[in-house]
Amino acid sequence: xxxxAPPPPIAKPTQPPTTGIPITxxxxxxxxxxxxxxxxxxxxxxxxxxxxxFVAILLLLIVITVFHGAREAMxxxxxxxxxxxxxxxxxEQYGAFIAIYGTLVTSLLSLLxxxxxxxxxxxxxxxxxxxxxxxxVIGVMVELLAAIPSVVLGLWAIFVMEPAIRxxxxxxxxxxxxSPLFATVPQGPGMAPAILILVVxxxxxxxxxxxxALNQVPIELRQGAYGVGxxxxxxxxxxxLPAAVSAITGGVMxxxxxxxxxxxxxxxxxxxxxxxxxxxLAPGNTIASMLANQFGEADGIQVSxxxxxxxxxxxxxxxxxxxxxxxxxxxxxxx
Length: 335
Description:
By secondary structure, the chain is an all-alpha fold. It has a single domain (54-334), classed as MetI-like fold, CATH 1.10.3720.10. Helix content is 68%, strand content 1%. The chain contains 10 helices and 2 strands, in the order αββααααααααα. The chain has helices at 35-77, 97-126, 132-146, 150-176, 191-215, 219-227, 232-261, 264-269, 287-294, 301-334, and strands at 87-88, 93-94. Strands 1-2 form a two-stranded antiparallel ribbon. Strand 1 (87-88) and strand 2 form a beta hairpin. It starts with 34 loop residues before the first helix and ends with a helix. 29% of the residues are buried.
């Protein structure tokens, strides 16, 4: 049996009471700031400006010091220093081509290996593929890997990694020995072990930054992708990764700068050869390793030549940072 009673009336929102006095700009009064508060703000502003200027001045002083030390070698060898491989302290003939080649090859190849490993590890940690507790453990282990001193990694590379990978390097030489890149018989320290130890050292950087970038992607993007019927991997490759690509690229470029400047671990495993060999299985050299090995015993124009090499390394890292800023800005505007 239904009731014929009319529905209750809908209550209308009540308007806040007004006093009839219009609110204008004159109704507000500015608080008079005491002199002590103004002085505190001014002092804080001057302190931050001083600290920021100190960083810039320190960097400028470092560049001036290295450039001043390299002037003699720059006047003696000029741009020929970049293209010659002779390093003869007896005859005072110097060229940094071997070290430049080793720096670029080891850094770029290690980055080529570390990018898929690092980004893949970040995806594995951020996606719901395993329980949360296990993901947290893997994330902590990756961070602890970044905390291992480079000298410890260098010792591990000498006594554990290099003997373990030598059969694989022998196999590469056996099957691909016709190629100049694998023409040298592996006999211990060389470019290939140095590349792999750099992979171990830059992997935590790429993984940590990629993980943070993926976690910062708004959840609404993922939910919207699922709402239109895409799969988990479709959302990941078409939505999540493009949204995080600028931050991931910044992390990759940061890792490249770290690889180019790494000294101790690479010095212990690369072989520190002064003869040029294009083979990845032969001993090589990098600018950082050359500085670490020879600066303590250098004298005369050799010191200036090492300063020249250090200036080249600084220019390379500067170019990497400028490229990183440009790439990140372009990708940020796109996505």
